[in-house]
Amino acid sequence: MTALFEPCTLRDVTIPNRVWMPPMCQYSAAPEGPETGAPNDWHFAHYAARATGGTGLIIVEATAVSPEGRISPYDLGIWNDTQVEAFRRITRFLAAQGTVPAIQLAHAGRKASTDRPWKGGAPVGPDAHGWESVAPSPIAFDDRHPVPAELTTDQIADIVGQFAAAARRALAAGFEIAEIHGAHGYLINEFLSPHSNHRTDAYGGSYENRTRFALEVVDAVREVWPQDKPLFFRVSATEWLDEGGWTADDTVRFAADLRAHGVDLLDVSSGGNASGVRIPTGPGYQVPFAARVKQETTLPVAAVGLITDVEQAEKILANGEADAVLLGRELLRNPSWARLAARELGGEVRVPDQYHRSV
Predict the structure, then answer these.
(1) Helix or strand or coil: residue 283?
(2) Which of 16, 45, 61, 298 could serve as a FRET partner for 86 with CA atoms 20 to 30 Å apart?
(3) CA–CA gap between residue 47 and residue 335 (Å, rounded)
């Protein structure tokens, strides 16, 4: 059996292969009204296509734990029961195709309340369904973004509770795996990094203080998330800063902490919290960060970042650099990538009866 098509079991959940889809926002939910934040026909078709294409695990895009936690007014949310019911349609279909449905729980922090990327992605105000953003410290992300409101300790506790409530709803919606979004400059990442966290209380300063909020969220979610179901955490392994930011060394140390708090896999990305940095992109450019965590800790990892080629993906797994690969843009271009990879490598992947003539 090829490494790419070997099943992966975490706790009591078995994922049929190692071809996984990472969270990728679609910015397509209603911004107001009773359907605010709820998945619609676009989301169903988007995720269903990748499931029928043989993807083993699909992590639904960053889904906000509160209205203020959305990146844009058009993001998905899971703070009410209307959203839960809408998600059930998607999770039922994914499970019927043999794909494990997962969801990323998120809060955008100081990068919230922005327009859709194809509209420029600039911050929006109340006249465009926007709101005031919040952060660990009153530091704007860049010159375009407003200065966010600094969270009080009571507000921090409220957000921890929102993550737990969102996890309960995710379970009710039929998701088998929950992922906590701690990357790309959103709220949890903002707390982790000394670049964006200038607090002087119990949530700022030392490594232990800066990781406190993240671990409180993990503990709150793990408490309500069933013990037989896995919990993932997404991290930006580096901010690509020469100094004053979160580093790969921090990520390795943090991975051990996450493991001790009940996290089952680290989804390793990078960047997003510091504007204007130069990132040396190229095929598999983030894989070394995942490989280091896997080598230096006991926490399983998934690698992401310009993984596009079948041989490349197989080699990452066969060499022990990661336990799974997350294909983002490539799965947008080719929803049936997993099925084509199985044909090339001689692996096995479920093919819907309706598509057998194409095998």
Answers:
(1) coil
(2) 16
(3) 9
Which helix or strand (DSSP H or E) is residue 189 part of? helix 187-192
pLDDT tens digits for range 182-232: 999 999 999 999 999 999 999 999 999 999 999 999 999 999 999 999 999
Q: Evaluate whether 246 touches 207 at the Cβ level (below 8 Å).
A: no
Q: Both tokens of residue 235?
A: 């991290």
Interatomic CA distance for residues 108 and 188, integer angstroms: 8
Q: Which candidate in 186, 203, 207, 355 is catalytic?
A: 186
For the cut 60, the answer to whether the pLDDT of residue 359 exceeds it is: no
Enumerate residues 6+ apart whose C-beta is below 8 A from 86: 35, 38, 39, 40
State both tokens at 329: 């843009």
Give the pLDDT confidence of 116-167 residue by residue, as tens digits: 999 999 999 999 999 999 999 999 999 999 999 999 999 999 999 999 999 9
Active site residue 186: yes
Residue 303 bridge partners (DSSP): 268, 325
Residue 178 contacts residue 221 (beta carbons within 8 Å): yes
Structure tokens at 341: 């990879």
